[in-house]
Protein 1
Amino acid sequence: ETVVNRIAAGEIIHRPANALKELIENSLDAGSTNIQITIKDGGLKLLQIQDNGHGIRREDMAIVCERFTTSKLKSFEDLSNISTYGFRGEALASITHVAHVTITTKTADSNCAYRAHYSDGILVPPKPGVSAEPKPCAGNNGTQITAEDLFYNVPARRKAMKNFAEEYNQIMDIVNRYAIHNAGVSFTCKKQGSNQADINTLTTGSTVDNIRQVYGVNTASELLEINKEYKKLEVKLKGYISNANYSLKKMVLLLFVNHRAVENSTLKKMIESVYSSLLPKHTYPFLYLSLEINPKNVDVNVHPTKREVLFLHEDKIIGRICDAIQENLACANS
Ligand code: ADP
Ligand code: MG
């Protein structure tokens, strides 16, 4: 059974950045306004996330890492109406099947924090001969989750992850996206032992401030704001795009659907063709696009951690997005 679970876990957690994405979404679901991430060896040795969210109750600590444990679905009906990020209770369980996990957490109504260690979905003692029960300890309100030695028990996967710098880039890509999409939440991410964070956004920072910090788009005038609603399609579109005078060495498309960072290759291709006639050769645009779609119209059968997302009326919606981009660019340059 453990082997089956480990294979299932491998489907969800391909690399450190996948694990971190799930952990960030959990912290956001818990209402956090401050998220601090520490990484060692591209996340393979250490992935740690500290938040100031609502915490996990002592009595739930034994089960949070079991498969299908979720506090986010009240009824089966909810499955077709998912508004939070997570919905299957598989992420934490999966991580415990491929790493050593420690959780330290405190709810506001508890007078101390509790710490527990997990492996293969269950509580395990920190060392042989001691109890596996969560232990009281000092700590602030919120949750700290530490995943160590990722893929220690999947040698082939571990071997494939030789390039720590590349894994760290993937991690930063995820942190940057979520930081930009969640102005009002401060994010920091650094390598363990470094006193310099590689991103450090403020709770008071705006979306534009965060885009500037991460992508260096210099003035607000280089970014055009998009804010549209398509009532018939039940879609809201918000975001910022660079104007045609601003160009990057490769296209940056930060796409969110219902607040989850996703990819959509059709949309990407269409956007490339919109800009191709506008930008000089070998220069590329920046786009941050956030779509809110009636959850009923988003395909929930695609696995929650697959980044490619499908939605109903996709062609029409993509058409509207491209129209909006063209309209904004035309306005800015007239
Ligand atoms: P899901 O997010 O789909 O519910 P997860 O496996 O990601 O499943 O998390 C399992 C449960 O653990 C969550 O439903 C939540 O109750 C709890 N949890 C996980 N991370 C946190 C966190 N940072 N703060 C508070 N609760 C958390
Ligand atoms: Mg989750």
Note: The chain has two domains: 2-200, 219-332.
Protein 2
Amino acid sequence: MTVSANDPAPARDERDRVIIFDTTMRDGEQSPGASMSLEEKLELAKILEEMRVDVIEAGFPIASNGDFEAVRAVAEIVSESTVCGLARAGAADIERCAEAIRPAKRGRIHTFISTSPVHMKWKLQMEPETVLEMITKSVSLARNLCGDVEWSAEDATRTERDFLLRSVEAAIKAGATTINLPDTVGYTYPSEYADLFRDVIENVPGADKVIFSTHCHNDLGLAVANSIAGVQGGARQIECAINGIGERAGNAALEEIVMALKVRGDRLPFHTAVEPLHITRASRYVSAITGFPVQFNKAIVGKNAFAHESGIHQDGMLKNAETYEIMKPEDVGQGATNLVMGKHSGRHAFREKLKALGYELGQNALNEAFQRFKDLADKKKHVFDDDIVALVDDALASG
Ligand code: KIV
Ligand code: ZN
């Protein structure tokens, strides 16, 4: 369906506020090769807090002493965001997690267990009834140690529906305050994921008392679309990571989620508290500390996300930026629109570039310089400002 600029924007309602849960330091760090030092995690936590991320999942405290120390240190310095640690369903995990988040002004224990047939049979080697008992035990223990408890049904999207409903009911009864239905293997489709939330929210007693969360992996490239569909189905928390890092193909990218909700606020009533101005800084910092480059054409934060080379696009951009940009690069901390000079560039953009470089040429000199520029651009991948200065000086000298 197309949306007209004249359609009224839906009214803002607190019930439509989407909690942004950042898992860059936990699921993101589980990307092979992405480990971060304690100092790097602290710096990242400061950036995330400044961005007004609601929940920072700082690690998996039982995984190693380093992870425990990092979660604890993040809990000590963060005061606005909730600091969360991950724990499996066993007492040792949960108690270690509670200890790590203890210094936090707002702390959360996130405990999980698999509920899908394939995970229960092969990974856990447990009967479904035992899994149900473990949900009750683990969530009750976590709730005795912390007032804010998230429970996740790992592999929820491949779980039999009746068993998922029973599992969620057990977690809510035991005191979970957030219920996460992860698409652990990036398997679901947007419409299917939205229906999953609708079904669970409608059919589980007590569902109206908790927040539902999405957690989408990107194995089919659908993580962001699925997360937004989950919100349309009733979820009000999205778990995501800066630059979309995470297990295998990664998690839903925080920057894409935040901007998709913001830019399409005309269509969807959902909003977040995240301040987009810090997005590019966060992206560059995560790329620097993990050594994972950001692909040039990555939405929002890629080098080319606001770059235009073709003459037709550059001409449109020079007349009105809304012709080819749906958000402003400055709003996400990306600097300015970049009209890249290359073989597809047109005369209009070339003249503007010359102006910016301090040249006002007459028609003949401009034609001559433009021809030389096109010849050069055919041979060279990147035409830099210095190349343009050289060819214009040359054209002026010979003219
Ligand atoms: O992908 C997943 O299911 C997870 C859980 C631990 C939430 O990362
Ligand atoms: Zn995950």
Note: Residues 32 and 247 are 8 Å apart (CA to CA).
Protein 3
Amino acid sequence: PVGVLAVVGRPNVGKSTLVNRILGRKAAVVENKPGVTRDRVSYEANWNGSDFLVVDTGGWEAGVEGIDSEVANQAEIAVELADAVLLVVDAQTGLTDMDQRMVRMLRKSKKPVTVAVNKLDDVRDFAEASDFWRLGMGEPYPISAMHGKGVGDLLDACMTML
Ligand code: GDP
Ligand code: MG
């Protein structure tokens, strides 16, 4: 059996960029505007000799009707089917209500969660991730998905959940 890791978070936080970084290739679609990944897509991945499935999802938008509620639904389905969850938040926008609502959904799911604080492109800013302890989801891992910084430590943490 292969563990399944669902990557969730608000639109535009860098989920698809992180999935590409994990895969080491451009497989997940990255766009400069929110909400491009509308569905959920699984990819076979490997970290330190362990195979797992990584699931990219559309941005989760709580309480929004129409297409965005569909996106929210896909993220919830992905979480339901996953063994562990990687919650991506954005250091450049900071903690938002949407992040907090997503955390409530994740708590209900009872799945193990690791928090990645993305867009910390300069390692000298990595300490800013500590603000996300407020989410109450354990240690926030600073990363730059775009530049590949911090992703190794993050994946080490994720693998302990799978
Ligand atoms: P998603 O909607 O959560 O899947 O986000 P995407 O992966 O599509 O990325 C949204 C935007 O954020 C794109 O313009 C990315 O280039 C940008 N982005 C993603 N990761 C980083 C990062 O580590 N640093 C910076 N500066 N931008 C990033
Ligand atoms: Mg995406």
Note: The pocket of guanosine-5'-diphosphate (ligand 1) is lined by residues 9, 11-17, 30-32, 36-37, 59, 118-119, 121, 144-146 (CB under 6 Å).
